[in-house]
């Protein structure tokens, strides 16, 4: 008879330009540890729509949840994380807006010398990364073929999602953890450190690109476990 405790629930939220399949490495590790893991396929058309998609998944959980967001997904969990089933938040190289802030406002004034993401001008209300610069900016520590596939399978990121402002940031009332990717060329290192400090998060730093959740799933899973066990 198995007397081990039931696993905690983990909900994973992807960011812009990608979909939830990138979480598979993290998913595999956590499910092998008997966590119940759900991956949200948020459409990244608007912040409100993505928050609704996350809350729908949260509603279906059978107990407390560790809510995890990568990149723009951090803005989504900051708003969706006020859901009563959310016990803690994990930011993975992610935006953590305060009340009234959006990803758009957070990237409006980059630090001097910081890398500028190669976002192309909006096309019919959607954003894409320059394919030829995708690997260097987003996936510098992934195999070239994998980075090329990601560049060619980009999910259109809605301008409305980028500009959606957080109303009630969950990190003000829920404990949070933050994984800083020190080689990130999408969200500057200084910005990640500032956001993690402002949120009062417990922090780990990993030498990785913006795609740390793909390149170092063990590190990401380890931080999620810490949030689950606090």
From TrEMBL:
This is Alpha/beta hydrolase. The keyword RNA-binding does not apply. Residues 10-222 form the AB hydrolase-1 domain. It holds the Pfam family Abhydrolase_6. Keywords: Hydrolase. It comes from Streptomyces venezuelae. GO terms for molecular function: hydrolase activity.
């Amino acid at each position: 008879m198995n007397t081990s405790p039931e696993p905690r629930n983990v909900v994973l939220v992807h960011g812009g330009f990608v979909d939830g399949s990138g979480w598979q490495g993290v998913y595999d590790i956590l499910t092998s540890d008997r966590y119940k893991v759900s991956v949200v396929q948020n459409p990244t058309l608007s912040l409100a729509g993505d928050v609704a998609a996350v809350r729908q998944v949260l509603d279906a959980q059978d107990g407390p949840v560790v809510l995890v967001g990568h990149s723009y997904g951090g803005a989504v969990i900051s708003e969706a994380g006020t859901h009563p089933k959310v016990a803690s938040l994990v930011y993975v190289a992610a935006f953590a807006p305060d009340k009234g802030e959006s990803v758009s406002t957070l990237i409006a004034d980059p630090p001097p010398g910081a890398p500028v993401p190669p976002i192309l001008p909006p096309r019919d209300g959607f954003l894409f990364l320059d394919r030829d610069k995708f690997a260097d900016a987003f996936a510098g520590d992934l195999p070239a073929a994998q980075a090329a596939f990601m560049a060619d399978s980009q999910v259109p990121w809605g301008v409305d999602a980028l500009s959606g402002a957080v109303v009630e940031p969950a990190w003000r009332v829920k404990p949070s953890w933050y994984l800083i990717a020190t080689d990130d060329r999408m969200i500057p290192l200084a910005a990640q450190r500032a956001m993690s400090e402002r949120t009062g998060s417990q922090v780990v730093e990993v030498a990785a690109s913006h795609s740390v959740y793909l390149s170092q799933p063990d590190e990401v899973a380890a931080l999620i476990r810490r949030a689950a066990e606090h």
